[in-house]
Amino acid sequence: MISVRNINKTFGKQQVLFDVSADFQSGRVNLIIGQSGQGKSVLAKSMVGLHEVDSGQILFDGRDFTSMDKTDRSEIRQEIGMLFQGSALFDSMTVEENVKFPLSMFTKMTKKEMQDRVDFCLERVNLQGRNALYPSECSGGMQKRVGIARAIAMNPKYLFCDEPNSGLDPLTSRVIDNLLHDITKEFGITTIINSHDMKTVKDIGEHIVFMHQGQKWWEGSKEELSEAQKSNPELDAFVKASF
Question: Is residue 238 part of a domain?
Fold first, then answer.
């Protein structure tokens, strides 16, 4: 489980997170939802250390990430896979080289071990045999799948995904959603998806955190969502506007 406790974050004089506390459940698909500018991206980036929080705690299975030194943080970061909004692939590298990159940077695997892991990850996202392609030769959906393959290459305990369906057509979006769900269950990963796509919430979301005006406005299961809308007008408006 990943827990955040009383997180506050400012940029200059502007406070963007206000005393946020939430739990992200192990082995499940957790969604951070909300409109643009409500703090969900800042929360997710703070959880992985891309932003330093002003106060509060971030706990990875009880380990306080916020109080760690650089070495200890590095150990946790190697347990984290990340899928960026724009896939963030290296244009000058092939699909294989992109997936292999974290393995060559952070492990002592032999060349054969790395090759076997790359092939496994590409096969898992249905891209077997596409090793030699460059990102420019891949569709948007394929690039997302390469990004997922790279994100799981290190066999992470935690997977963070920033708007994984951004720029994709509805059919491809569902393919990516289902792939993330299946990988979460298959490998027991704690997955956190930052999204404003309610179709993703309805299809694969298991635990949901709703952000509004830099605060956690609601937290609960997908099954509790409809009932929560009755007493939470901000949540209700977001859900209705998202379909």
Answer: yes
Number of domains in the chain: 1
Residue 173, domain member (yes or no)? no
The structure's pTM equals: 0.92
Q: Which residue has better confidence, 242 or 186?
A: 186
Question: What's the CATH code of the domain at 215?
Answer: 3.40.50.300
- Phi/psi at 198 (nearest 5 deg)? -70, -20
DSSP secondary structure string, the chain? -EEEEEEEEEETTEEEEEEEEEEE-TTSEEEEE--TTSSHHHHHHHHTTSS--SEEEEEETTEEGGG--HHHHHHHHTTEEEE-TT----TTS-HHHHHHHHHHHH----HHHHHHHHHHHHHHTT-TT-TT--GGGS-HHHHHHHHHHHHHTT--SEEEEESTTTT--HHHHHHHHHHHHHHHHHHT-EEEEEE--HHHHHHH-SEEEEEETTEEEEEEEHHHHHHHHHH-HHHHHHHHHT-
- Report the C-alpha gap between 186 and 218 in whole angstroms: 28
- Beta pairing partners, 17: 9
Tokens representing 46?
């703070």
Beta bridge partners of 212: 215
Q: How many other C-beta atoms are found inside a 10 Å radius of the C-beta of residue 92? A: 9
pLDDT in tens, 123-148: 999 999 999 999 999 999 999 999 99
- For 58, other C-beta atoms within 10 Å of its C-beta total 22
